[in-house]
Amino acid sequence: MSVHSPATPAEWAAYFRLRYEVLRQPWQQPEGSEHAEDDAAPTTTHALLLAPDGKALGVGRLHPSGQRQGQVRFMAVASAAQGQGVGRQILEFLEAAARRQGLTEIVLHARENAVPFYQQLGYLVVAPSHTLFGTVAHQLMRKAL
Ligand SMILES: CC(C)(COP(=O)(O)OP(=O)(O)OC[C@H]1O[C@@H](n2cnc3c(N)ncnc32)[C@H](O)[C@@H]1OP(=O)(O)O)[C@@H](O)C(=O)NCCC(=O)NCCS
Question: In CATH, which superfamily holds the domain spanning 9-104?
Fold first, then answer.
């Protein structure tokens, strides 16, 4: 399986399940909190890597956030699959989509623990950003495409 956009109800379910398990459940957030208003917007690009059993190994999304700028959100890799290149595949899929859309820059708000991952992929810290759920500090990062 390679990275692709979710296409079937089962793939969408796997996509949002992983988003919830990695980015919401550990902070006791309610089911449904993993959804964003613009998930269904035609301009939002979703990336999914599936395991052979149909569960999601990695997910992420991109949306236009300014003139020729895109924002990556909701990057998540299943805990058992972290550190094996899945996150890189997801992010490179989204960067390729951004280039095809004519975007010249990607920004994102990285959780502190993920900052070295994004640095490894060419992103630079711009400034401290918000704190999520009262504890999860973020850094604004950017990469010129
Ligand atoms: C952050 C996350 C998406 C990275 O995905 P991943 O699949 O674990 O990362 P990869 O294996 O693709 O790593 C790509 C490169 O970054 C490096 N890297 C990843 N995490 C790192 C870390 N914490 N410290 C240093 N380097 C790191 C890897 O060593 C690898 O380097 P290489 O190119 O030399 O092989 C994933 O670990 C995750 O979902 N974490 C929990 C949720 C989260 O924080 N999401 C981000 C929200 S902003």
Answer: Gcn5-related N-acetyltransferase (GNAT) (3.40.630.30)
Choice from 15, 17, 117, 140 to test ligand 1 binding pocket (greatest atom count within 8 A of CB): 117
Task: Give the mean pLDDT per block of 10 residues along the chain (145 residues).
Answer: 95 98 96 97 98 96 96 98 98 98 98 96 92 84 98
Indicate the residue type of 72. Answer: V
Atom 29, ligand 1: residue with shortest CA distance: 83
Domain boundaries, the chain: 9-104
Spell out which residues line ligand 1, taking CB within 6 angstroms. Answer: 22, 75-77, 82-88, 110-111, 113-114, 116-117, 120
Cα–Cα distance for residue pair 12/9, rounded to 1 Å: 5
Residue whose entry in the numeric block shows the structure tokens 């006791």? 28
